Amino acid sequence: MRRLHQLPPDVITKIAAGEVIERPASVVKELLENAVDAGAHRIDVDIEQGGVDLIRVVDDGCGMAAEDLPLAFASHATSKLAIADDLFRIGTLGFRGEALASIGGVSQASLQSRPAEQATGAEVACQGGALSSVRPWNGAPGTRIEVRNLFYNTPVRRKFLRAVGTELGHVSEVFTRLALAHPTLHLTLRHNGKDIYEIPGSSGILDRLGVFFGADVRERLYPLEARQGPVLLRGYIADPANERGNAKMQYLFVNGRWIRDRSLGHALQEAYRGLLMTGRYAVAFLFLELPPDHVDVNVHPTKIEVRFRDGQAMHHLVFAAVRERLQKEDLTGQLRIPGKVFAPGFGPGAGLQSAPGFFGSPVIPASGLPFASAPNQANNHLSQASPASGISNDPGTGALAHSARLGGPSGEMGLTPVPAPGELKAIQLYDAYLVLETPEGMLVIDQHALHERILFEQLKRRLRTDKLESQRMLIPEPVDLPAEQAARALEQRDALAELGLGIEDFGGGTVLLTSYPAILGKQPPQTILRAVVDYLIAKDRMPVRAQVLNDLLSLMACHAAVKAGDRLTADEIASLVAQRHLVHDPHHCPHGRPTSLLLSRQELDRQFRRT
User: Fold this and answer.
1) Rounded CA gap, 441 and 608, in Å?
2) What is the pLDDT of residues 557-571, one digit of tens each?
3) What is the DSSP letter of 594?
4) Which superfamily, per CATH, for 472-560?
5) Which of 162, 189, 368, 546 is close enough to 166 for a disulfide, judged by CB 3.0 to 4.6 Å?
6) How far is CA 546 from CA 231, 495, 539, 549, 551, in A?
7) C-alpha 286: how far from chain center
């Protein structure tokens, strides 16, 4: 049996370095944070071969005294903490005293520093943890650190580094985060002698966002500011049209420190719920300022994870602020016009055609949405609005008809009275889109997406006052499901009952469908229930009840709405268009697809060279 023994100092250093120094970008991050803590106004970063061969960071901060240099590369040597209680009120980016020791243990590093009040400075070198003697150095005030041949003494670690371009990308990301968190710093980044970035200290956050992410992002940002007690939230959120396929464009900062936080990320996504499609992510740059004793940054050696004293309050602040800010904006999408407006072959008698890409975003087929079904038949009836719908029938509007197109008894989800003839100019194209003349320009509406949004909000209004009306089935209908699916459905029995969908356990994998939402009319009950069960099974972890209800309402609205391919009458078109102005969010369906796109009058004039 092997006996216990203490590890040599060089092994301890390499183990510690593995927690802090993963790649060249880790070195750049630690050195940049030290420069910020030193009060620097300018920081210059030079790297070679993605940072593997050389990382040089020069700052004009307060510098270090010669007598302190021998401790610079010592483990857990720091000027930022004195007693244990200081860990609970950290006001600096660095504090653990591990960075330089870890860097010196796996590289050939040198440190040169001079305080402004001293005529000369000093330098010291550290090679694989071995420290040299301190020597005089005649340089400018501030600190200069060079890190060469990273992981030269740990070849396995070096072998796992990526290509030069990849490592440069990671360094650029670290540089970007610091530049956004500290907008008064003058920062430069050079790679192999070539300038990558030079960010003057006079440039604000918006200027920096434009430099790092382009004008397309910068021009679609909305400023945000909110306060809750001692906590201040500021930043920018992007228009939902700028959504991404991952969360990498969600930047969260706490007291000048870039962080990752699952709860805040969830709050941000929830605020965009209904504005983004599933699997798409918002773009946001959020900065939280709060007292140091309200957040614990001593959670992980890399200092990118934090723990809030009141995480629930932080979640609510982000969610409420972002949601409120989005509600202030007109989120109608803009049609993108290609170089040629009309497709080849357009001419007299040929009919109106759209050039490839004319409508900007591809149409999501009905089969790609939950509760997909065959298009409603053209003989769906017209029905009068019910007082229970929560929408007033004002005789002064000149109403002619109401379109329900739901197949339910007595038109439970009746639509709003349409304006008098001549007040709206709308036509249907391809049995899928409505084209409407507005003062702003030509509005192209997705009939399914708009009707889905209308029904969704009507369902929510009803649910706020009472359960949705259900229709008892004379003979309960058995539905056979796999045992796991039946159990998941029965777990959510109360939530389903609120939606008018009643189920009971019949044993094994069979459930009895006892009641059915009246608004869905003649839609096959089994189809509805199976679609609901598919949704429940798709969740690895069941969301909270409010989210379950929200998602199921959107599924029901999607299933009941008119589909692409449904031919609408003139009255139905007018009725659908009239209700667009009565919903809370007319810009997106509950699944995040746009309901309409605008081609402005100015753009039309420009395309036809009338300007």
Assistant:
1) 14
2) 887 788 888 898 888
3) B
4) MutL, C-terminal domain, regulatory subdomain (3.30.1370.100)
5) 162
6) 27, 9, 15, 5, 9
7) 11
